[in-house]
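Exercise 7. Given the encoded structure of a 264-residue chain, write a plausible sequence.
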């Protein structure tokens, strides 16, 4: 077994055991070199391996830059909660609602662009390939950790009618904004795949290039047109997507049963 793999496994075991709690810095490269009596390149490779496993990322703690330990375990995402017919009015979007439900502290960094979307997205939206779309990007953060990126594409005319062509985030979420504008979503199709992080993903999610990602693509429609195409890039090995269908009473029973018997 290569030395960097052995070192990564040792550090992973220590992280799991709580030697290095979430939100704290690992020892410096220099300290790890001395501890394991290996080169800096070997330590860098071991840290990259931990990053691919979603256990650490680069950042700042108390003004010091270093390798930060991520939270342990998987985060549940209830993908159907935002689609429930009995979902009430709220000042929070679906991401924030879900984070609070699973006991995590959410925050976001938001940006809006107007640009030509990829051809396949233009086709789904039903717009010409040379036409710009409104692209709303939410960089989602849990407990201070980069966790996911949501990129949603909207036809320009629809975005203007729903007030989505703004550089401001909408705390209540775009699903409610679309409904208020007369474009209530009545159907969605989700496609889930796994991908490897590219350079842009690595920068946004604080993972090494090649790290595993869970990618969810949602195409939604009102009764008259496609409303949006959304892509969610989430950390692999650190997330679990959950779809719930059926009567609310039965679903509450299933949730309680899952919580009492959760093994991962």
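Solution.
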């Amino acid at each position: 077994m290569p030395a960097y793999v052995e070192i990564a496994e040792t550090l992973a075991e220590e992280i799991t055991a709580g030697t290095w709690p979430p939100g704290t810095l690992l020892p410096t490269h220099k300290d790890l070199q001395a501890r394991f009596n290996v080169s800096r390149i070997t330590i860098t490779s071991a840290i990259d391996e931990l990053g691919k496993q979603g256990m650490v990322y680069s950042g700042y703690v108390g003004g010091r830059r270093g390798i930060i330990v991520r939270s342990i375990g998987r985060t549940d995402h209830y993908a159907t909660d935002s689609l429930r017919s009995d979902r009430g009015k709220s000042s929070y979007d679906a991401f924030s609602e879900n984070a609070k439900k699973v006991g995590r502290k959410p925050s976001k960094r938001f940006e809006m662009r107007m640009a030509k979307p990829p051809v396949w997205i233009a086709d789904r939206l039903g717009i010409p390939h040379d036409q710009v779309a409104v692209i709303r990007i939410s960089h989602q953060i849990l407990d201070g950790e980069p966790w996911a990126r949501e990129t949603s594409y909207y036809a320009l005319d629809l975005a203007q009618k729903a007030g989505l062509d703004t550089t401001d985030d909408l705390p209540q979420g775009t699903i409610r904004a679309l409904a208020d504008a007369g474009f209530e979503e009545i159907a969605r199709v989700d496609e889930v795949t796994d991908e490897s992080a590219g350079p842009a993903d690595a920068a946004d999610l604080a993972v090494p290039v090649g790290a595993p990602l869970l990618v969810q693509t949602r195409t939604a429609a009102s009764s008259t047109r496609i409303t949006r195409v959304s892509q969610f890039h989430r950390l692999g090995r650190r997330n679990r997507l959950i779809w719930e269908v059926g009567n609310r009473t039965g679903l509450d029973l299933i949730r309680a049963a899952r919580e009492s018997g959760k093994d991962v």
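Remark. The CA atoms of residues 84 and 153 lie 22 Å apart. Students should compare their own answers with the one above.
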